[in-house]
UniProtKB/TrEMBL annotation:
GO terms for biological process: regulation of pH. The gene is nhaA_1. It comes from the Bacteria. Na(+)/H(+) antiporter that extrudes sodium in exchange for external protons. GO terms for cellular component: plasma membrane. The chain crosses the membrane at residues 28-46, 66-88, 109-128, 140-158, 170-189, 195-212, 217-233, 239-257, 278-300, 312-335, 347-369, 381-401. The keyword Iron does not apply. Pfam families: Na_H_antiport_1. One of its GO terms (molecular function) is sodium:proton antiporter activity. Keywords: Antiport, Cell membrane, Ion transport, Membrane, Sodium, Sodium transport, Transmembrane, Transmembrane helix, Transport. It catalyses: Na(+)(in) + 2 H(+)(out) = Na(+)(out) + 2 H(+)(in). It comes from Actinotalea fermentans. This is Na(+)/H(+) antiporter NhaA. The lineage of its organism: Bacteria, Bacillati, Actinomycetota, Actinomycetes, Micrococcales.
Length: 434
């Protein structure tokens, strides 16, 4: 347990701060593309040419002989999102192997906050959606996920002067959140598991692990192994994105002794992250959003009708209210129970803003919604609920971030601190951290 002198959300190292800043720059572009793809999908789906959008989304391509004749929408959800979750796996492993969060005491808070940010929204959803009958309860996990791309993009644009520790906290919380979401998908949204393909997929993941542990980088070796692992996972009945996370976990974070050891520089995980993060943020997630977000709203009457469904209301309440209570409440409880304190550079309003950002559930929430109500008439209502809840959460978080950002600009703290000749801000020098 933490002692009285330990800080909650402490200032990270300068190397970690620079890494987070680089990720934020990439995710800002990805978040913008995600927004554009969503607007295009909504505009097309609500235009006189809406039938063309549905035909494109449902167009089947791929070899039927191996059960991969999938619609473009399914390819985006099962295939492209596997790239996204591969990056999630890389990021999560790096955080706990070589990042500042390798210290269990530092890792505990974002993990607990992520758990609280999933449990409370699920409970809120169950309370609200229970009015629609027991069938509606299958969507309990929809408001539990946080969209990394959207959340980090909003933070990068509106929180330019917020302390770097807060950005690290959000990134780690969102990554853990996505890992938990994948676990939920594997455990609760898998109807029929075929053991032989699953074992085959895990065996191929093992071969991939052997190759990357030997520092093999050749795409013609690794890519076929990854594709086969993904295809077998898809055939097993477990959602294929699980393969992406497992493959990411196998990649070594530190350099081997033969390669110069940890002190010599980054390992294969960072190399892959540099290569695949732009593909994930710039292609995989926006394309998925384009095929998943195209809901025909039907004007104001249609919007009122959709939001009149307790399922949609439960999603909105879970994202906007449940996430804030779960993340902020868990963080506050940890502070109370462990006597830990917020870092001197932070205020509780900063934590509240991050908790509100957690309510942007877009990508993974849409994915879980498709799994929970795949052939249900509520599928369209689910999309309206996710879009409305994420938009409201982003609006609330944006207002809080703008207010806090102005406060930090006036106080001339965080990113505006002076640097010495070595390029490292004074606050990150040994003996200078608060």
């Amino acid at each position: 347990m933490a002692d009285a002198t330990q800080n909650l959300i402490p200032r990270r190292s300068w190397a970690e701060t620079r890494r987070i800043s680089e990720i934020l720059r990439k995710e800002t572009v990805g978040g913008a593309l995600l927004l554009v793809a969503t607007v295009l999908a909504l505009a097309w789906a609500n235009s006189p040419w809406a039938e063309g959008y549905a035909d494109l989304r449902d167009l089947k391509v791929g070899p039927a002989s191996i059960h991969l004749d999938l619609s473009l929408g399914t390819w985006a959800a099962d295939g492209l999102l596997a790239v996204f979750f591969f990056v999630v796996g890389l990021e999560l492993k790096r955080e706990f192997v070589a990042g500042d969060l390798r210290d269990p005491r530092r890792a505990a808070l974002p993990i607990l906050a992520a758990v609280g940010g999933m449990v409370v929204p699920a409970l809120v959803y169950l309370v609200v959606a229970s009015r629609a009958g027991s069938d509606a309860l299958t969507g309990w996990a929809i408001p539990t996920a946080t969209d990394i791309a959207f959340a980090l993009a909003v933070l990068a644009v509106l929180g330019t002067h917020l302390p770097a520790a807060l950005r690290t906290f959000l990134l780690t919380l969102a990554v853990v959140d996505d890992l938990l979401a994948v676990t939920v998908i594997a455990l609760f949204y898998t109807d029929d598991v075929r053991v032989l393909p699953l074992v085959g997929s895990l065996a191929v993941v093992g071969l991939f692990a052997v190759a990357v542990q030997r520092r093999v980088r050749a795409w013609w070796v690794l890519l076929p192994l990854a594709v086969v692992a993904w295809a077998l996972m898809h055939e097993s009945g477990v959602h294929a994105t699980v393969a992406g996370v497992l493959l990411g976990f196998t990649v070594p974070v530190l350099r081997s002794a033969r390669g110069g050891g940890p002190e010599a520089g980054p390992g294969l995980a960072e190399h892959f992250e540099h290569r695949f993060r732009p593909l994930s943020a710039g292609v995989a997630v926006p394309v998925f959003a384009f095929f998943a977000a195209g809901v025909t709203v039907g004007g104001l009457d249609g919007l009122r009708s959709s939001l009149g469904d307790p399922v949609a209301l439960g999603i909105v309440a879970g994202l906007v209210l449940g996430k804030v209570v779960g993340i902020f409440g868990t963080t506050w409880l940890v502070a109370r129970l462990t006597r830990a304190r917020l870092d001197a550079s932070l205020a509780w309003l900063d934590v509240l803003a991050v908790a509100a950002l957690g309510g942007i559930g877009f990508t993974v929430s849409l994915l879980i919604g498709e799994l929970a109500f795949a052939s249900d008439v509520r599928a369209e209502h689910v999309k309206v609920g996710v879009l409305t809840g994420s938009l409201l959460a982003a609006t609330v978080a944006g207002a809080l971030l703008r207010s806090r950002n102005r406060a930090y600009v006036r106080l001339e703290v965080a990113e505006s601190v002076d640097s010495d000749a070595d390029g490292v801000p004074d606050a990150f020098e040994p003996g200078q951290a608060g």
